[in-house]
Amino acid sequence: MNPKRLAAALAAASALALPASAEAAPYQDAVLAGDPLTYLRLDEPLGAAVAEDASANDRDGAYAGAVTQGIAAPFADADTAAAIASTGSVTGSVDQVSRTLELWVNPDRVARGAQVGIVSHGNPAVDGWAIGIGAKRKLAIVTAGATAQTKITLASNAWTAVAVTWSDKVRVYVNGALKKAFNGAPATGSGAFVLGGNGAGAFGGSFSGRLDEAALYPTALTAAEIQSHFLAAHVPVNTAPPAIAGTLTVGETLTVQPGGWNDAATATRTYQWQRCDENGDDCGDIDGATATQYVLAAADDCMTLQVAETVTTVVGAGTAISEPTAKVGPCAVPDPDPTPDPTPTPDPTPAPDTGTTAGAVATGAGATQAVATAATSGCLRLVAGRKRTKLRRYGVLRLAATKNACLTAPIRASLKLRKGVRLKGVRYKLDGKRVRRVKRGAVLRAAAGSHTLTVRVAPRAGKAKTFRVRLRLAVS
Questions:
Q1: In terms of DSSP bridges, do strands 209-217 and 260-262 run parallel, antiparallel, or are they unpaired?
Q2: 237-321 sits in which CATH class?
């Protein structure tokens, strides 16, 4: 037989002998061409105990705890994926330093204030690394004890391809595109490679959601290599994120302007609106808000919003998130949390409007009647606390109260800004409790005792800074 024909026949016979999951496929070929340290495809059948390494290195993983195999994968070439509950994990051993991670992630909804791990290699507190959802529900990377908090939001209940490389810088890629690069020494350790869990202790909670196609590499892949791997999945590729149009006032209707996509000619589009804090951080899904339009509710006042657009074809799905909007008006609270505090006790006798910046009314135990009680049973005095406190680089905090003089009205605080200073917002808290806004100035109602006034100043550019002022009131 002709040698070329013989070789072709042998190749065909070999292909027929392989199980479906082992046949050549574009995404798998791209990963294996990078010579990974381990490649856990997580496509085992339900009940399997071993996550097989698809590379030639035989570094298998072990399923443990609440893990369900055989669920829908992020794209057709990926076969199936694994759902990992907070008590489940997949653990392998990789005894070499890793410089690149590639992983498809589909996290469950993360509660406000919670942090969860996703994946780790070695001991992130010493010389390894961990990746998870950190502060304000943004992607975080812990390397050799140092935490880098990104501005990247992972859409919940949607697949995202995440890649991280460690070389001269740490680089974070989302769906094949570079999203963040920062200084940081590369990890030098090795050891357990864990999918799920709390990031080897680097995060306060454990991952819950779906994972697939996890690969580690001994070198830092280039941006072109990472992009080529993602494109090999043939899921829709976002070319322009969705946008939000409409008037940002409670009661008005916002509308999604769809994003631009490649490989999406026959796609279907779905949406999930998210509510964020005033800085566009700490974003969480709004229950039931999945239409192309959204009517701004009272809970959106002073908040920002964004929308996640998921485009699905027969091959797979891609998700892109819009830029956050500006703050929703009329903004009755200067810097609220996504879950509003209980409504404070109303001020029966508001003080005159004399402040110079937006502020609030603070109430504490017995504070509503503090001035009235002092008028009948004694004199409520400010016995400790500066009338003027310099807030470095921003201006001066003023208290409209004279020391040791009887208070006939609540104390009014106002911020006199330095020339040229422009602020995004000011938050006042009294004894750790957020205060309610009045038109201008902060009206502080407090009973006799020691108190702490906290002022958080957020400039238009740069990081916010917090100042604390100690106050003490006494009745005589």
A1: unpaired
A2: mainly beta
